[in-house]
Design the sequence.
């Protein structure tokens, strides 16, 4: 009997409207743990290389992890995966909130959607049943309005709904999936894949959550964690200020991306930090399913800016991308920008960084006022930022170009615009400055989904001997501090170990804000929780190997699409001196960066010439079938 | 803030006096360079402490 998961995977053929259920064995779950592990397995096994990401052949997979929905802190997450229309790589993005646990309670660990519906539909999951229903009446509505209408139609006020908005319907290449208005599978344009299939939403309602192996132990561990919050400073920082609390520290440290990553310091950071947020817009703290950390922020309605407040408040990434990186200091405008993104299903990171790209193009004369529908996209102009977001959602005028993402827009603009596009593999960077976080820069370059900030922890966390985060890594053999700006072998080793942990979280359905190293709760304590939920004798070794396996599967998917070492790069800007702030003048060394890349591949058992896993490594990870899979796709491994 | 030194002191001792326990900190810098908490501090030095800023 499975504990923690349902043992059921739902297949939905959108073209003919049929559904069927598969029941993979326990060994499958223990090998891949669900989430991104499960999704990438199916994408590799069942999807041919080279499919059009916005065509009917692209499989779209929603997958919970084995731990998703456990009555424990920070375990609400699920993955959405497909070939990304933004990057052409594997697309995978996780969200918290409530949908993942409800999907499991409705009877399914994962949903694999194929084909394209002839007309807009939504999928309704209820206690083991699945039904495709007409969505024409909600097509074109915002996320919140569509969800309200669907709940009313079904008479299901407690249904949890993951939906796309107009951005996904209009195939904006960085459209996202949003559940409960505030939780986004933000990256990679998976909302556009959903839109390309005429799928508006997946509605989940269930009354039979999978049992835990040892419910008494689970209850005791949940109570233990709740008792930690007041006394654990790293948990408390998230509890008190959420991610907006990061702005002040990043500004002080000189790593707050400003003016399209030219500077690490924003002169008006005080207008957009947590103190300003708390005074101007903050209403209350909220959390995800069963999580006492409550890092999410609610905001007051703001009629003057047309902000309803129903989509919650901006997170740090949104604040950074729509704020300092566009040199915008109007917090209420940033909150409105957040609402435009969440209500329409738009990734605020890619949207903001594509707008800052346009601002730099305009200020350098590469685009004109006429090109921009009469707007003058200058840094610091909040009114223009909001207007551009609206245009992107509707693909109107200049918005049609920006909806393609900064890499494609740069190609079209030409005349060297590529140097202003802060992207890796076609996806825009999140709000973390690689020149102050070189290992994070390494992770950004290596990420198989394109630039992504959730692949590894941040370099400054491992500098002080007394660091609470460093102490959580002792069970993994990381025993000594490593300097912040170092990118030598000890930092690469730290990166390589942590990347496995982060990829394990992506499979298991666990939020990295819940456990070490992000917060000072021991990873051993998490393993105790995993044992109580699953009944498996889970070890740190097993968790690390699962993470490494997920990473190897992602690399294999990308290899079939032609990606390799040549694509593991950073924008040229990061090898040039940072212009402002505490780290002004610092630049990444290209030689050191290339040495670090080579060493990372070698430490992973990958071929440093190609950046791909070796056949021996895939065998060691117990996935030798991937070698044949790649051979059939014309990719030979060493 | 300015703190008077009665004698030899370390960065960690001064930060505790300032009400900043090490568990709340991510980086400590002395005259612009990152240091450990046992770094000696002299009169006139600039000591900076940065809070936990990891996460996304």
Sequence:
């Amino acid at each position: 009997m499975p504990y923690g998961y349902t043992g059921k995977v739902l297949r939905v053929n959108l073209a003919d409207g049929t559904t069927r259920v598969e029941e993979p064995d326990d060994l499958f779950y223990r090998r891949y743990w669900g989430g991104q592990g499960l999704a990438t397995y199916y994408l590799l096994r069942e999807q041919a290389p080279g499919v059009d990401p916005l065509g009917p052949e692209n499989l779209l997979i929603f997958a919970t992890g084995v731990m998703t929905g456990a009555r424990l802190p920070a375990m609400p997450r699920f993955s959405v995966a497909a070939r990304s229309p933004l990057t052409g790589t594997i697309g995978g993005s996780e969200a918290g909130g409530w949908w993942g646990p409800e999907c499991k309670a409705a009877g399914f660990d994962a949903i694999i959607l194929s084909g394209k519906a002839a007309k807009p539909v939504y999928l309704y999951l209820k206690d083991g049943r699945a039904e495709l229903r007409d969505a024409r009446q909600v097509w074109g509505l915002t996320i919140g309005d569509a969800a309200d209408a669907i709940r009313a139609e079904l008479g299901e006020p407690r249904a949890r709904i993951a939906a796309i908005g107009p951005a996904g319907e209009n195939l904006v290449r960085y459209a996202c999936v949003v559940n409960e208005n505030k939780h986004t599978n933000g990256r990679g344009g998976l909302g556009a894949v959903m839109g390309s299939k005429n799928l508006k939403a997946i509605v989940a309602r269930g009354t039979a959550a999978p049992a835990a192996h040892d419910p008494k132990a689970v209850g005791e561990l949940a109570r233990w964690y709740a008792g930690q919050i007041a006394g654990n400073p790293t948990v408390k920082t998230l509890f008190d200020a959420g991610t907006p609390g990061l702005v002040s520290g990043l500004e002080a440290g000189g790593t707050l991306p400003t003016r399209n990553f030219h500077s690490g310091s924003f002169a008006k950071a005080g207008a957009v930090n947590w103190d300003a947020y708390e005074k101007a817009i903050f209403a209350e703290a909220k959390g995800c399913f069963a999580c006492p950390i409550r890092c999410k922020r609610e905001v007051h309605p703001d009629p003057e800016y047309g902000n309803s407040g129903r989509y919650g408040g901006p997170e740090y990434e949104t604040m950074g991308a729509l704020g300092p990186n566009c040199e915008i200091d109007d917090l209420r405008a940033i909150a409105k920008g957040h609402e435009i993104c969440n209500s329409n299903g738009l990734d605020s990171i890619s949207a903001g960084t594509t707008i800052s790209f346009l601002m730099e193009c305009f200020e350098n004369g590469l685009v004109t006022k006429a090109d921009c529908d009469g707007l003058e996209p200058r840094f610091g102009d909040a009114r223009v930022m909001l207007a551009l977001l609206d245009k992107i959602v509707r693909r109107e005028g200049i918005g049609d170009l920006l909806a393609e993402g900064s890499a494609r827009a740069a190609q079209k603009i030409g005349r060297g615009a590529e140097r202003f596009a802060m992207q890796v593999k076609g996806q825009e960077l999140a709000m973390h400055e690689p020149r102050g976080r070189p290992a994070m820069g390494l992770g950004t370059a290596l990420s198989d989904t394109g630039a992504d900030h959730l692949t590894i922890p941040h370099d400054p966390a491992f500098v002080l001997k007394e660091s609470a985060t460093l102490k959580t890594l002792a069970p993994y053999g990381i025993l000594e501090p490593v300097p912040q700006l170092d990118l030598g072998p000890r930092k690469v080793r730290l990166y390589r170990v942590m990347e496995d942990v982060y990829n394990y979280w992506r499979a298991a359905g666990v939020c990295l804000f819940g456990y070490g190293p992000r917060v000072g709760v021991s990873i051993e304590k998490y393993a105790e929780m995993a044992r109580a939920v699953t009944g498996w004798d889970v070890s740190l070794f097993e968790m690390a190997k699962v993470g490494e396996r997920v990473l190897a599967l992602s690399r294999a998917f990308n290899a079939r699409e032609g990606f390799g070492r040549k694509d593991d790069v950073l924008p040229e800007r990061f090898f040039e001196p940072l212009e402002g702030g505490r780290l002004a003048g610092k630049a990444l060394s290209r030689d050191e960066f290339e040495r670090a890349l080579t060493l990372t591949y070698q430490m992973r058992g990958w071929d440093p010439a190609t950046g791909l896993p070796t056949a021996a490594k895939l065998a060691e990870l117990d996935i030798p079938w991937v070698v044949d899979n790649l051979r059939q796709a014309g990719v030979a491994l060493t | 803030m300015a703190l008077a030194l009665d004698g030899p002191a370390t960065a960690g001792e001064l930060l505790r006096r300032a009400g900043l326990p090490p568990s709340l900190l991510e980086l400590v810098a002395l005259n612009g360079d990152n240091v450990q908490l046992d770094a000696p501090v002299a009169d006139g030095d600039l000591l900076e402490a940065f809070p936990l800023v990891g996460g996304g």
User: Anything to note?
Assistant: The first strand of chain B starts at residue 9 and ends at 10. The domain at 9-51 of chain B is CATH 3.10.20.30 (Ubiquitin-like (UB roll)).
